Amino acid sequence: MKRIFLLILTLTGAFAMAEGPCAKDRETLCAGVSHGDGRMMKCMKENEAKLSPECKASWAKNMENMKELKAACHDDAETLCAGKTHRDLAKCMRQNKEKLSEGCKAEWKEMKESRKGRKG
């Protein structure tokens, strides 16, 4: 299950986005932290108490969405991309997007739409 969570972080870029409600928090609290390898997420989590109210709300919504996405896509990742981890798993899932279950596709679409609504 941990690798599915990492896949979701890789695919969504949670808190690694350049814009949105956590941009200033990210720049202030995690300046110099690299993106795409989980370090940004770890930094933001370590600084959770210092996050702005807007960022905390976005964080909570992201966590909720990630749990739903993880549940919906777990079997797809295991079946289509067995043995893959991190970026290789993300790449494999993108390459197999047409083969994903309807539930996984629906949750993925909902995650993207929710994230778009929180940018800016």
Query: Average pLDDT value?
Result: 80
Order of helices and strands: HHHHHH
> Between the first and last Cα atoms, what is the distance in angstroms?
32 Å
Number of contiguous helices: 6
Radius of gyration, CA atoms, in whole angstroms: 14 Å
Outline the low-pLDDT stretches.
Answer: none
Number of domains: 1
Main sheet properties: none
Class of secondary structure makeup: mainly alpha
The coarse overall form would be globular
- Oligomeric composition of the shown chains: single chain
**Helical amount:** 55-70%
Strand content: under 5%
Say how many strands there are: 0
If you had to describe this structure to a student in words, what would you say it looks like?
With 120 residues, this protein is mainly alpha-helical. It has one domain. It is built from 6 helices and no strands. The protein has helices spanning 2-12, 23-29, 39-46, 53-80, 86-95, 102-118. Helix 1 (2-12) packs across helix 4 (53-80), helix 1 (2-12) packs across helix 5 (86-95) and helix 4 runs antiparallel to helix 6. The longest helix has 28 residues, at 53-80. It is globular.
Summarize it:
By secondary structure, the protein is mostly helical.
List the helices and strands and how they pair.
Blueprint: H1 2-12, H2 23-29, H3 39-46, H4 53-80, H5 86-95, H6 102-118
